[in-house]
Design goal:
Length: about 160
């Protein structure tokens, strides 16, 4: 592994089957209840565990694999847990068709039997896309801010 990338990528000591990982990643796309992929200590903080994953790509870039996920939103450690499961599938420790079964259980304990959470190495937020109507000001709000404007008229500097 390139030592300059050690803080920015996750190093797998196993040879990974990218075809199996791609097949498994397809099961994540669509609208699903991702309760099984949120860490239990934060499960109560998300009012709606149903998220829509638009795409989950597994791209080979020489010796590196780039996993790219795009969705309507993510739960606490959801992506890290999905990647951890894909790594186990890539090692060929479990079959790709286990993903729909784990999604159906909606139980984090079932996922923990097969994969622990992946470390955050290499995980980065690439972009955030907002629905334009959510960015509009509510009706009745002024178009400009009427916040306070302060000017300094006197400045006293204590000298010691």
């Amino acid at each position: 592994m390139d030592p300059f990338l050690r803080h920015y990528v996750y190093h797998s000591v196993y040879k990974l089957n990218t075809l199996a990982m791609r097949e498994a990643a397809k099961h994540f796309t669509g609208k699903h209840d991702f309760s099984a992929f949120v860490n239990a200590s934060h499960n109560d903080r998300s009012p709606n565990p149903v998220k829509n994953i638009f795409r989950f790509d597994v791209n080979e870039m020489g010796a590196l694999l780039q996993l790219e996920v795009e969705g309507s939103g993510f739960l606490y450690r959801q992506v890290r847990n999905m990647v951890a499961l894909l790594l186990q599938i890539g090692r060929e420790a479990i079959p790709p068709n286990i993903v729909p079964w784990i999604l159906a259980t909606r139980d984090r304990k079932e996922l923990a039997k097969y994969a622990l959470s992946a470390p955050p190495h290499g995980l980065c937020l690439m972009s955030v896309k907002y629905n334009e109507e959510h960015l509009q000001l509510p009706s009745g709000c002024p178009a400009t801010s009427h916040g306070r404007h302060h000017t300094v008229r006197k400045c006293k500097l204590p000298f010691y």
